[in-house]
Design a protein that fits this description.
The complex is a heterodimer.
Chain A lengths: L1 E9 L5 H14 L4 H22 L7 E9 L2 E8 L27 H8 L2 E7 L2 E9 L7
Helix pairs in contact in A: 1-2, 2-3
Chain B lengths: L22 H6 L7 H5 L3 H8 L5 H6 L16 E4 L6 E7 L7 E9 L5 E8 L27 H9 L14 H14 L4 E4 L4 H9 L3 E4 L1 H11 L4 H5 L15 H9 L14 E5 L15
The chains are: A alpha+beta, B alpha+beta.
Chain lengths: ~140, ~300
């Protein structure tokens, strides 16, 4: 089993709710557990916010292509944009031990994605920046 | 949000940028993107063999042009390839009859600074259709598709005849097949995408249908659609003040395009500028900024 769905919208904050709904709708089709849906929506939200606020900074925003592929035991979400390149590996790790008042605003997005997704791949080339998350599906089994 | 991410101001070059290429290099690593400049350094015949794939045989067949020799039944040359050594561009021109100025097809590709390929021009006109002199003003100066000067009388006639801004004749309606050929060619050269700047709103709409996404300007296209709806600023500006701003024009792609060509975006303090689109080889982006559009 492998099915793929795709949606493309402008890189603007107003598109975030459309992307979240897209993930919800795709997951509902395949009865993905609620916890997994929440984590996927969170990861997509954080990644797309980053693209909107940083990737397309200083230019008339282009597109974000969000694709969703479901296989028997996992979901692959791919986010493509054509803005500035960023390097997830170079992003500073947030200090989650620090007191709340000492932490800078933001900086948690990548941390959350790494924390909730099972695999992350980021590729940049002449044809855009492609961020792919993999999330394994843990179905609840009946006793 | 990733507030502290390091953001590179420009995309990084990801491939080598060879000045020229030999046949052995060309067959050596099929995964290495090859620039047009490198291809142009090849001898004429291999260059011709490669670039010949860019012009669809169906288009040539329409005009009885042999796709191998690029000649018509009278043995007259009908297609010209410009791909000089040292240049980073390739231009292919096809014409009908014995006058090369009577061109019906013009394609220009160029290397861009990031080892990608830009489609600079694609013009495909039906030479049998009436020509509107929108490309020259009434003093005989070039209008450059109406971008630097305008021939209002001819533009109005062209609009009434169903043409889009920038067109001098009816189109050949072959963009889909031309893009397929460009993608095949680029795949052969190990490229993953190509880029272009849509000259008009009509062009952008057609390129959306052909699978392009925006690397710049998606938000502008959304704004244009929103503001052309009843109650929107562009809708209000269709006030009949010029032949290109008639009240019903918001309903069609062409109508909107002529109004934008006429400068209507000024009411939003915007202009039709700096849009950039990308076509990923083998992928349809599914962008629709004017849902259920009527052409």
């Amino acid at each position: 089993m492998s099915e793929r769905f795709q949606i493309t919208r402008a890189a603007e904050l107003a598109s975030l709710s459309v992307f979240r709904q897209f993930i919800s709708d795709c997951c509902a089709k395949f009865r993905v557990p609620d916890g997994t849906v929440f984590e996927l929506k969170l990861a997509v939200d954080e990644a797309c916010t980053n693209i909107i606020e940083h990737g397309y900074k200083g230019m008339d925003p282009g597109s974000i292509i969000l694709s969703f592929r479901i296989e028997s035991d996992r979901i692959l979400v791919q986010i493509t944009d054509f803005g500035h390149v960023f390097e997830p590996a170079e992003a500073p790790k947030p200090d989650i031990e620090a007191a709340l008042e000492d932490r800078p605003l933001g900086g948690m997005g990548l941390f959350l994605i790494y924390k909730t997704m099972d695999n992350i791949d980021y590729q940049t080339s002449e044809d855009g920046n492609i961020l792919t998350f993999t999330k394994y599906i843990k179905r609840e089994t009946n006793p | 949000m990733f507030k502290r991410l390091r953001v590179s101001p420009e995309p990084k070059k990801i491939g080598p940028d060879p000045g020229e290429i030999s046949i052995s290099q060309l067959i050596g690593d099929a995964g290495l993107p090859v620039t047009l400049k490198a291809l142009n350094s090849l001898p004429q015949n291999p260059k011709l063999r490669l670039y010949r794939t860019l012009i669809p045989i169906q288009v040539l067949a329409e005009f009885d042009i042999n796709p191998r020799t690029w000649k018509n039944p009278d043995k007259l040359q009908q297609v010209k390839l410009e791909a000089e050594s040292g240049s980073d561009k390739v231009k292919i021109t096809a014409w009908h009859g014995d006058d090369p100025k009577n061109e019906f097809f013009y394609l220009e590709l160029a290397d861009n600074p990031y080892n990608g390929i830009d489609l600079n021009f694609l013009i495909a006109n039906n030479p049998a259709s009436r020509k509107y002199r929108t490309d020259f003003d009434d003093e005989g100066r070039e209008t450059l598709f109406g971008t630097v000067r305008r021939n209002l009388v001819e533009e109005e006639k062209a609009m009434q005849a169903g043409l889009a801004p920038g067109q001098v004749r009816e189109g050949l309606r072959c963009s889909s097949i031309v893009f397929n050929h460009i993608e095949t060619f680029l795949t052969m050269m190990a490229h993953h995408a190509f880029f272009l700047e849509p000259l008009t709103y009509v062009s952008a709409w057609i390129f959306e249908k052909r699978g392009f996404a925006y690397s710049k300007g998606h938000q502008l296209m959304d704004t244009i659609h929103k503001e052309f709806q009843p109650g929107g600023e562009l809708h209000k500006a269709l006030d009949g003040s010029t032949p290109f701003r008639q009240p019903d024009q918001w309903r069609t792609v062409r109508g909107r395009a002529w109004a934008i060509h006429d400068g209507i975006l000024q009411v939003l303090d915007r202009k039709w500028d700096d849009l950039r689109m990308i076509k990923q080889v083998g992928r349809h982006a599914g962008v629709v900024t004017f849902p259920d559009a009527e052409y």
